[in-house]
UniProtKB/TrEMBL annotation:
<dbReference type="InterPro" id="IPR008918">
    <property type="entry name" value="HhH2"/>
</dbReference>
<dbReference type="InterPro" id="IPR036279">
    <property type="entry name" value="5-3_exonuclease_C_sf"/>
</dbReference>
<dbReference type="Pfam" id="PF01367">
    <property type="entry name" value="5_3_exonuc"/>
</dbReference>
<keyword id="KW-0540">Nuclease</keyword>
<keyword id="KW-0238">DNA-binding</keyword>
<keyword id="KW-0378">Hydrolase</keyword>
<dbReference type="Pfam" id="PF02739">
    <property type="entry name" value="5_3_exonuc_N"/>
</dbReference>
<dbReference type="InterPro" id="IPR020045">
    <property type="entry name" value="DNA_polI_H3TH"/>
</dbReference>
<keyword id="KW-0269">Exonuclease</keyword>
<dbReference type="GO" id="GO:0004527">
    <property type="term" value="F:exonuclease activity"/>
</dbReference>
<protein>
    <recommendedName>
        <fullName>5'-3' exonuclease</fullName>
    </recommendedName>
</protein>
<dbReference type="InterPro" id="IPR038969">
    <property type="entry name" value="FEN"/>
</dbReference>
<comment type="function">
    <text>5'-3' exonuclease acting preferentially on double-stranded DNA.</text>
</comment>
<dbReference type="InterPro" id="IPR020046">
    <property type="entry name" value="5-3_exonucl_a-hlix_arch_N"/>
</dbReference>
<dbReference type="InterPro" id="IPR002421">
    <property type="entry name" value="5-3_exonuclease"/>
</dbReference>
<dbReference type="InterPro" id="IPR029060">
    <property type="entry name" value="PIN-like_dom_sf"/>
</dbReference>
<feature type="domain" description="5'-3' exonuclease">
    <location>
        <begin position="5"/>
        <end position="275"/>
    </location>
</feature>
Length: 305
């Protein structure tokens, strides 16, 4: 049995958006009335993850480009519904100033937060999950991260779709039980099924069960597309017609859904410090923004793991 402590990779945007919408602004404000609900929720979620998963290394991944041009070039609908009228992502006005505050606190504690131009946090997570020594645990509320599960490398996904307190600890068997496909087939399964939240239309008339059966039978999208050209492949006429109608989409969708595994990243010190690397800065920030409780809980979680 492998008793090594994991590297915890955190999908920061996924968690701070979830925190923002999960905690009312009225419940978390600085002395001047500035909302800090996303900061408080994010810090508490991170503290819970560190306390319960007991990692010895942590990295928080960032979106330096929430809608990379190379994905949009392949699929123009990608996240198109989330583009603000003036450009950029639709982000609540009161969330925007909270993100730098989260980064300031992470820096004072000594937890690296990293992104890369032209890539999403998903791609940073994928690169670190496949390039760092295992075991690795990826904490995210984004189902696309399920594709990173890899039992051989010791990569698990902590799916936080219902919150960190109710996270789903996913290995390959759990992915198969939940979705009917192995983790390695999840990206193709997702491309077939579609995801309206990301502007992925999927194949009209193909739901989760049909998508899972196709991936299980033909292995991957390349196998499915090859089988479309084989009269003996056994497709029902209706299903063949749906897949043929979506052929152009299916040719590009996997490249959009699959995370990049080769993002250029700086060398990182991933080991958790025994205590805050800049305690004075952390104390000043916590006092100014009425965040003493969440900061203390995070520091304690790191010290007690």
């Amino acid at each position: 049995m492998n008793d090594a402590r994991p590297l915890l990779l955190v999908d920061s945007p996924s968690l701070y958006f979830r925190a923002y919408f999960g905690i009312p602004e009225s419940a978390a404000k600085a002395a001047d009335g500035t909302p800090v609900n996303a900061v408080r929720g994010f810090l508490d979620m991170l503290a819970t993850l560190i306390r319960t998963r007991r990692p010895d290394r942590v990295v928080c991944a960032l979106d330096h480009d929430w809608r990379p041009a190379w994905r949009v070039a392949l699929l123009p609908t990608y996240k198109a519904h989330r583009v603000a009228p003036a450009g950029g992502e639709v982000v609540p006005d009161t969330l925007v100033p909270q993100v730098p505050l989260i980064l300031d606190i992470l820096a004072a504690i000594g937890i690296p937060a990293v992104g890369a131009d032209g890539y999403e946090a998903d791609d940073v997570l994928g690169t670190l999950a496949t390039g760092q020594p295992g075991p690795v645990e990826v904490a995210s509320g984004d189902r696309d991260m399920i594709q990173l599960v890899d039992d051989a490398r010791g990569v698990r996904v902590l799916y936080c779709g219902r919150g960190v307190a109710k996270l789903e600890d996913l290995d390959d068997a759990a992915v198969r039980a939940k979705y009917g496909v192995p983790a390695a087939g999840y990206a193709d399964f997702a491309a077939l099924r579609g995801d309206p939240s990301d502007g992925l239309p999927g194949v009209a008339g193909v739901g989760e069960k049909t998508a899972a059966r196709l991936v299980e039978r033909y292995g991957d999208l390349d196998g499915i597309l090859a089988a479309l050209d084989d009269p003996a492949s056994g497709f029902a006429p209706g299903l063949r017609g749906k897949l043929l109608a979506a052929r152009d989409y299916l040719a590009v969708a996997p490249k959009v859904v699959r995370v990049a595994l080769d993002v250029p990243l700086p060398d990182l010190v991933t080991d958790l410090p025994r205590g805050p690397v800049d305690p004075d800065r952390l104390l000043a920030t916590a006092q100014r923004w009425n965040l003493a409780g969440p900061c203390r809980r995070l520091v304690d979680a790191i010290a007690e793991r």
